[in-house]
Amino acid sequence: MKRYGAEFIGTFVLTFMGCGSAVVLGAAVGGGHLAVALAFGLSIVAMAYAIGGVSGCHINPAVSLSMLLDRRMSVTDFIFYVISQIVGAIAAAATLAFFVSTEAIADMTGGLGTNAVAGAGGIVPALIIEIILTFIFIFTILCVTERTDKFKSAAGIVIGLTLTFVHIVGIPLTGTSVNPARSIGPAIFAGGQALADLWVFIVAPLAGAALAVLVFKLVVKSRSAQQPT
Known about the structure:
This protein is mainly alpha-helical. The chain has helices spanning 2-28, 33-55, 61-69, 75-99, 123-146, 155-174, 180-190, 192-196, 200-226.
């Protein structure tokens, strides 16, 4: 239960700070998505060192799926991790919705920091960009968390920076999901097109995670297995 509670807290922080920055900064400065990207990345860094020792700080169903496929967690843990993550994101979005009006504030990604396919030019381009961005993010996570040397202690910083540069590219296109939970929470309260497009930001990150695991097993694990012991 401590692990599931940690995942709830971590996903709440990520969604509240990341999507909250999109709402506030989108209204205040417009186009300044670098700060929003940093908010998401720094949230990961903070939570990695806060709850990483408890739950591993997945705070993302796509990350949990990659760990399941790489046999680093059980099916039972996967199910409860995902439930905790989604509930945490919904709680964060509900808190944001209490303070702001999705009609009054036009942030950079749609109401309440939601994701959308319009910036990418439609459903297919949005699917492709989200798969690519999620692949980069999850592949990095798999690689750095596999390490056993002294550099593993910097994994939280590396993962946070990776999420930051993924957002720098993705925000103008889709608002950057790479995380189904982070997309589900705001979409529920924003409704409309955000809810209609939501399936894209569930399917694409999960597909990107599965692809990352496949490449990781073929390239990284297979190579390490060939190294002399």
